[in-house]
Amino acid sequence: MFYAAGYFLLMNRHRPTTPAGAYYKFESSFRWAPNDVDRKPQSGPPWPAVTLWNVIYSPMDKFYFRIWPRTSAEVEKLGSVGYSR
Questions:
Q1: N or C of the chain: less Cβ packing under 10 Å?
Q2: Ordered per-residue pLDDT tens for the chain, 85 residues
Q3: Biggest alpha carbon–alpha carbon distance for the chain
């Protein structure tokens, strides 16, 4: 119960929620994480603002978006910044 309540308190469901598929930009879905754009070439995936909360709430993200999927406008907007499902 505290896990689910914490998810709604701490996470912003209008932001990208997982680093998998975020090719050049990843904004943490933690409400108070900085928005960070990684413009440096790297060998690994660019995950500049991922927090521990994103890791902890990854299963809840999957559950939330299975019940309430993103709108096509949100999917299109996320696709424009390099995010893919």
A1: N
A2: 899 999 999 988 877 776 555 555 566 788 887 665 555 555 555 555 577 888 888 888 888 888 988 888 888 877 776 676 5
A3: 41
Q: What is the spatial distance between Cα 36 and Cα 28, in angstroms, rounded to a whole number? A: 9
Q: Tokens 């990208």 appear where?
A: 16
Which residue in this structure is represented by tokens 């998810």? 7
Quickly tell me which residue has 């900085």 as its tokens.
Answer: 34
Q: What is the DSSP string of 43-78?
A: SS---TT--HHHHHTHHHHHHHHHHSPPPHHHHHHH
Which 3 state secondary structure label does DSSP give 25?
strand
